[in-house]
C-alpha cells in the first residue's frame, strides 16, 4: 500500500494575506500526485488511467476536457479521450459507457456535460458504474457520501474540503451557510460539512433562490460557501467581520478595458468582502483551480481501489 503524503500548506507564508490560494494548493497536489505515480512505477504497479468522453463542439467543454487530459499527462497518469460528434445517438453513447465500464485498464471515466438535447444525461450518468464514477455524479456515490461511507465526492466540494484541511480552517461548531443547492456543489457541500468528521461538525444552513431573507442567514455565518452563479451577489453588508468566504462562482462580466472584453468574477463582491473576511478565495485562483486536481485525486483513489475494494 502506498501512502499518499500530504504536504501541509505553510500558513505562515500567507500571514499577511487572508487569501485561500487555490493555485498554490493545486501545484502542491499535482506534485504529490506525480510523486505517487513515480512510486507506483517503482513498485511495478498499474499507472492510473482516466478516460473522458466528449460529445460535440461546445467550446467550454472542449477546454475543460483538454485541461483534464493534459493534467493527466503532466503528472504521469494515462488518459484516453473519446470524441464523438453531436449527432451521436443515445444508444451509441450508452455502448461507449458500457465498454468503459468493462475495460479493466480504465480506472475511472467521465462523460463531459452538458450533452446534446437529444441525449438523456440522467440515463447516461446512471449507466456509469459507481466504481468508475470519478466525477461522483452517480446517486450511489451521492448516497454513500451522505451516509459517511467511502465515496467519490464531486470535484468542487472535494476541492473545498482539501482547501479547508490544508489551511486548517476550523469547522466544528461553526455556522456554515451554503448558498446554492445543486446536486454537485451546494447539497454535497452542506452534507459534508454537517458530518461527524473533519472538515465537518458544523451547523449548516442551505440557502437558495427561495430563501426568504438571505442576508439574515449570511450575516450569521462563520463560513459562507457561495455557489449561486450570480456575479458579485454576496456583498459586504451581507457578511460579518471575520467570516471565511469560499467563492465557487466563475462569472464573466463585460469589461471593455480587459483584453478579451470581459473579466471573471465570483459570486462574491471580492474587494469589499475581503476587507471583512478572515479568509477568502479569489476568483480566479481559488476553488476553480482545484476541480481538475480533485478529479485526478479521485482517479488515483480509483486505481488504488480505495473507495470500492
Ligand atoms: N461539465 C462541467 N463540469 C463538469 C464536470 O466536473 N464533470 C463533467 N462530467 N461535466 C462537467
What does this structure look like?
By secondary structure, the protein is α/β, with parallel strands linked by helices. It folds into 2 domains: 43-148, Rossmann fold (3-Layer(aba) Sandwich); 155-289, NAD(P)-binding Rossmann-like Domain (Rossmann fold, 3-Layer(aba) Sandwich), CATH 3.40.50.720. 36% of the residues lie in helices and 15% in strands. The chain has helices at residues 22-42, 59-75, 90-102, 121-127, 139-146, 155-166, 186-194, 214-218, 270-274, 290-303; strands spanning 49-55, 78-84, 108-111, 175-179, 203-207, 223-226, 244-247, 251-254, 262-265, 279-280. The strands form 3 sheets. Strands 5-4-6-7-10 form a 5-stranded parallel sheet. A 3-stranded parallel sheet has the order 2-1-3, with helices on one face. Helix 1 (22-42) packs parallel to helix 10 and helix 2 packs across helix 10. The longest helix is centred in the first third of the chain and has 21 residues, at 22-42. Residues 64, 110-113, 135, 155 line the site of guanine. The site of guanine has 7 residues, from strand 3.
Could you list some keywords that capture this structure?
309 residues; Rossmann fold; 2 domains; five-stranded parallel sheet; three-stranded parallel sheet; 10 strands; globular
CATH superfamily of the largest domain, called what? Answer: NAD(P)-binding Rossmann-like Domain
CATH architecture of the largest domain: 3-Layer(aba) Sandwich
Domain count, please report it: 2
The ordered string of helix (H) and strand (E) elements is HEHEHEHHHEHEHEEEEHEH
**Percentage of residues in strands:** 5-15%
Uncertain segments: 1-8, 10-17
Report how far the terminal alpha carbons are from each other. Answer: 13 Å
Amino acid at each position: 500500500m502506498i501512502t499518499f503524503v500530504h504536504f501541509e500548506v505553510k500558513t505562515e507564508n500567507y500571514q499577511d494575506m487572508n487569501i485561500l490560494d487555490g493555485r498554490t494548493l493545486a501545484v502542491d497536489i499535482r506534485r504529490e500526485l506525480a510523486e505517487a505515480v513515480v512510486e507506483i512505477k517503482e513498485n511495478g504497479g498499474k499507472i492510473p488511467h482516466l478516460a473522458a468522453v466528449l460529445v460535440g463542439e461546445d467550446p467550454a467543454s472542449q477546454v475543460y476536457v483538454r485541461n483534464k487530459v493534459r493534467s493527466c499527462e503532466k503528472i504521469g497518469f494515462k488518459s484516453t479521450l473519446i470524441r464523438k460528434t453531436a449527432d451521436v445517438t443515445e444508444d451509441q453513447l450508452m455502448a461507449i459507457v458500457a465498454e468503459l465500464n468493462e475495460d479493466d485498464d480504465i480506472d475511472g471515466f467521465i462523460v463531459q456535460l452538458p450533452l446534446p438535447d437529444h441525449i438523456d444525461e440522467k440515463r447516461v450518468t446512471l449507466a456509469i458504474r459507481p466504481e468508475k464514477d470519478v466525477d461522483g455524479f452517480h446517486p450511489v456515490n451521492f448516497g454513500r457520501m451522505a451516509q459517511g461511507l467511502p465515496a467519490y465526492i464531486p470535484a468542487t466540494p472535494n476541492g473545498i474540503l482539501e482547501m479547508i484541511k490544508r489551511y486548517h480552517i476550523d469547522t466544528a461548531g461553526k455556522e456554515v451557510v451554503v448558498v446554492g443547492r445543486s446536486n454537485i456543489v451546494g447539497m454535497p457541500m452542506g452534507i459534508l460539512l454537517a458530518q461527524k468528521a473533519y472538515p465537518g461538525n458544523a451547523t449548516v444552513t442551505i440557502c437558495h433562490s427561495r430563501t426568504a431573507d438571505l442576508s439574515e442567514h449570511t450575516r450569521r455565518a462563520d463560513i459562507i460557501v457561495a455557489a449561486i452563479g450570480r456575479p458579485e451577489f454576496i456583498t459586504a453588508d451581507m457578511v460579518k467581520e471575520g467570516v471565511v468566504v469560499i467563492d465557487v462562482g466563475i462569472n464573466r462580466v463585460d469589461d471593455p478595458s480587459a483584453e478579451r472584453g470581459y473579466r471573471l468574477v465570483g459570486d462574491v463582491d471580492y474587494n469589499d468582502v475581503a476587507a471583512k473576511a478572515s479568509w477568502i478565495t479569489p476568483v480566479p485562483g481559488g476553488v476553480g483551480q482545484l476541480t481538475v486536481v480533485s478529479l485526478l485525486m479521485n482517479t488515483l483513489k480509483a486505481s488504488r481501489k480505495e473507495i470500492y475494494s
